[in-house]
User: What shape does this take?
Amino acid sequence: MSGTLVLVRHGQSEWNLKNLFTGWRDIGLTEQGIKEAKDGGEKLAERGIKFDIAYTSALSRAQVTCQLILDEVGQSDLTTVRDQALNERDYGDLSGLNKDDARKKWGEEQVHIWRRSYNVAPPGGESLRDTGARVWPYYLHEVQPHALRGETVLVAAHGNSLRALIMALEGMSSEQIVKLELGTGVPMIYRLNADSTLKSKEILA
Assistant: This one.
C-alpha cells in the first residue's frame, strides 16, 4: 500500500514581493500569491486528487494557501492541523530587513552564508539544520503515519521547512538542498512505498 504526500510552498507573500526577510513574521499573500495557490489547487483537482488530511504551519500565508487549495479540490471542510513545527526558518535579526540593505550592513558574502549555508544561523535565528531538527520529528510522528496507511496528505508550508523535509525524503546532501529552489504555489506530488521510501515525484509546475 502506498500513500501520497503533496507538498506546496505558500503563494507569494507581501514581503516576498518587497524582497524582505520574513521568517516567523506573519505576513499575508499578495493577489499574485492567492492566484498561485488557486492555480496549484486547480492542477490537483484536474488530477482528481482528494486528501484525507492537511497540515500547515502557524503562519497565515501557509494557512490561506492550504485553504485555497482545499477549496479548489472541493474539500473546504477537510480536517487541517496547524503547527509551528512547520513554520518557515526563523531569520532572527534579519526578519523584516530588505535583503539588499542586509548586504550593505553585513556584506554580501556574510548574508549569502546565512541564506544559503546548511548549518550557519543568522544572529538570533535558525539554520536550515535547526529548521530540520523540528520539521523531521514532526513529519515522522504526525504526517508520515497517514501516508503509510495509504492516505493522501497535503502539507502547505514554507520554502525552508519544505527544503528540510525534501532533504530527508529524497536523501539529498546539505550541499544539494541549499541549492534547491521551490516555486510558490507549485504542488509537488510524492508517492511513497509502504516502507516509507520514495516511489516517485512529480512537480505540477
